[in-house]
Request: fold
Amino acid sequence: YDPWATPEEVLHKYGITSKQQLSAEQYDAIVLTVAHKDFLDINLNSVKDEQSFAYDMNGVLEKMDVRL
Reply:
């Protein structure tokens, strides 16, 4: 999920499928690769399951109230 990048751009550049809107699904893994302010406003607790883990490349989780 990245609201700033188009799915076509992400597919072309990285070869992965991306979404511009975060769905209400629960995820096993959350990888934060950018530190856009948009991500600070997300309640990650609402999209993770009990066994989720996160890989935070930019120290975003330090600024969020989330337990992964």
User: Anything to note?
Assistant: Helices lie at 7-14, 37-40.
